Amino acid sequence: MKGLVIKNTGSWYTVLLDDGQTADYKIKGNFRLKGIRSTNPVAVGDRVTIAEGWITAIEDRRNYIIRKSSNLSKQSHIIAANVDQAFLIVTVNYPETSTTFIDRFLASAEAYRVPVVLVFNKRDLLTEEELHYQDMMMQLYDTVGYHCVSVSATTGHGVEELKKLMGGKITLFSGHSGVGKSTLINRLVPGVSLRTAEISDAHNTGMHTTTFSEMISLSPQGDGCEGWLIDTPGIKGFGTFDMEPEELTSYFKEIFHFSKDCRFSNCTHTHEPGCAVLKAVENHYIAASRYQSYLSMMQDKDENKYREAY
Predict the structure, then answer these.
(1) Closest Cα to residue 300, out of 251, 262, 267?
(2) For 220-252, how does the pLDDT look when each residue is reduced to its tens digit (9 = 90+)?
(3) Residue 34, Cβ neighbours under 10 Å: how many?
(4) What DSSP designation does 249 have?
(5) If residue 22 lies in a helix (H) or strand (E), which one and from where to where?
(6) Helix 128-144 and helix 288-303: axis angle, to 10°?
(7) pTM of the prediction?
(8) Cα separations in angstroms, 91 against 10, 235, 246
């Protein structure tokens, strides 16, 4: 039998079988993804083979989102597989999502060919000054080439636009704890009733309410024919995994664009004479925040450690 993994609890995997039935299974054997050591060899979104009550094989993935495991620096954690797009839920306050975190997620998604929409939530809570800052951030990422949507999970502002973007697709939802993923999903999929929690006033940070990854059908019949939404636990930091420094340029769209004019083909865009990227940063064609994110990711390989990005 074959099926789709729609839930991962850490020890059991819920599989939607091709005959329409769902059942829980464990994995059999030592699964590995092309030599990459992973904390979760089977991910939500995987197509799998079931034999004698076990998951025995995984079909080739067309893409996936991966990050470095926070407690085991040499292992990875696959957030989801076989997705059409990712919605990164961010907030400029309550809590604040840093541009470093955003850029690390975007670069990882570029590496594994996953289109990203940046969803700026909680606009109803923002002051006029914060709204202006959000508009500036949206303009920055829109200029780079990322679709940005301003929403309020509480009031429903912008939710209809998200529904249109999700139609017929498999959409991964990710972001820090506390950015309102569960509230937004409850608004998008009436009746799903995900648990939500208040923001910690002391630290302006979120508290985990989702403890495992799960695919939620957008179809009233639950068959997923109108699309799927993948809910994932909030992530604190985004350690990049298995990226070589020389590849990194291509994961930042605007840096890659200007790098073609560098004097040296192996330019690292950090100190070389005739570097078109450094000139573009100096002339504000590349945002300083994006360039700093690029530099921080260049350092990852040398430090060989998980870096939290706030």
Answers:
(1) 251
(2) 777 777 899 999 888 766 656 567 778 899 999
(3) 7
(4) G
(5) strand 22-27
(6) 70
(7) 0.87
(8) 28, 14, 31
